[in-house]
């Protein structure tokens, strides 16, 4: 699909076809959404679909997870007219932080951190990332928010796989993703 084409009818998830498959090997995600972000209508519809379940919910702040979650998170924050908080991989913030170790989708051990002065007790935060594969990265972000007294108002990602970690998140938090039910098995199997 070309980056200017907009389908005459736009069903939820039409923009998923804009994503490119992994050609670099197992240390990378199996799909790359950066091409979707280049398509103005695709990005707009993706953000609208992610936010639809949260219409009318109390959200004080949107937090995006390093790094592709920054794109969707900032777009969601702008749409909601809320502030944006970056949850970073360790070593990138030059302010007081709290850290949380985690294992990412490729099995690598990492540490995530967030500034300590942005979250106060009771602040309702929508967490946004591009993908929830094993759930390790999102769980680390949840731990950071809750450790600082914040409330996870919801979790939004282009895809939330039905992995053990993905199910754990979906059972405990209000979630939103863009994959239609008929396509979910293909995404879960990375096809």
Number of helices: 6
Sequence stretches where pLDDT stays below 50 over 5 or more residues: none
Query: What's the shape?
Result: globular
Report how far apart the termini are: 18 Å
Order of helices and strands: EEHHEHEEEEHEHEH
The largest sheet is: 7 strands, mixed
Strand order of the largest sheet: 5-6-4-3-7-8-9
**CATH third-tier fold name:** Rossmann fold
Relative strand content: 25-35%
* Percent in helix: 25-40%
Q: What is the residue-mean pLDDT, rounded to a whole number?
A: 94
Query: Strand tally, please?
Result: 9
Highest-level CATH class: Alpha Beta
**CATH architecture type:** 3-Layer(aba) Sandwich
Q: Write down the Rg.
A: 16 Å
Helix-strand makeup class:
alpha/beta
Q: How many structural domains are formed by the residues?
A: 1
Brief write-up:
With 191 residues, the chain is of the alpha/beta class. The chain has helices at 34-38, 40-51, 68-80, 136-147, 164-172, 184-188, and strands at 20-21, 31-32, 61-65, 83-89, 97-103, 109-115, 124-132, 151-160, 175-176. The protein has one domain: Rossmann fold.
Please give a handful of descriptors for the protein shown.
191 residues; alpha/beta; Rossmann fold; 7-stranded mixed β-sheet; two-stranded antiparallel ribbon; 29% helix; globular
Plain-language structure description:
The structure is a single chain. With 191 residues, the protein is α/β, with parallel strands linked by helices. The chain has one domain (14-189): Rossmann fold, CATH 3.40.50.2020. The protein has helices spanning 34-38, 40-51, 68-80, 136-147, 164-172, 184-188; strands at 20-21, 31-32, 61-65, 83-89, 97-103, 109-115, 124-132, 151-160, 175-176. The strands form two sheets. A seven-stranded mixed β-sheet has the order 5-6-4-3-7-8-9, with helices on both faces. A hairpin with a 5-residue loop joins strand 5 (97-103) and strand 6 (109-115). The mean pLDDT is 94.
């Amino acid at each position: 699909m070309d980056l200017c084409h907009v389908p005459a009818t736009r069903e939820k998830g039409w923009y998923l076809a804009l994503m490119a498959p992994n050609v670099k090997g197992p240390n990378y995600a199996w799909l790359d959404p950066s091409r979707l972000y280049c398509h103005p209508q695709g990005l707009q519809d993706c953000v609208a679909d992610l936010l639809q379940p949260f219409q009318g919910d109390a959200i004080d702040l949107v937090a995006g997870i390093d790094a592709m979650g920054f794109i969707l998170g900032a777009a969601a924050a702008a749409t909601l007219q809320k502030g944006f908080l970056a949850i970073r991989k360790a070593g990138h913030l030059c302010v007081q932080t709290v850290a949380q170790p985690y294992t990412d989708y490729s099995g690598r051990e990492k540490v995530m951190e967030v500034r300590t002065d942005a979250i106060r007790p009771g602040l309702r935060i929508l967490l946004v990332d591009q993908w929830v594969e094993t759930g390790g990265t999102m769980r680390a972000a949840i731990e950071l928010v809750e450790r600082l007294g914040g409330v996870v108002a919801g979790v939004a990602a282009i895809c939330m796989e039905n992995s053990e970690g993905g199910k754990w998140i979906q059972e405990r938090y209000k979630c939103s993703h863009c994959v239609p039910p008929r396509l979910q098995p293909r995404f879960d199997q990375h096809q």
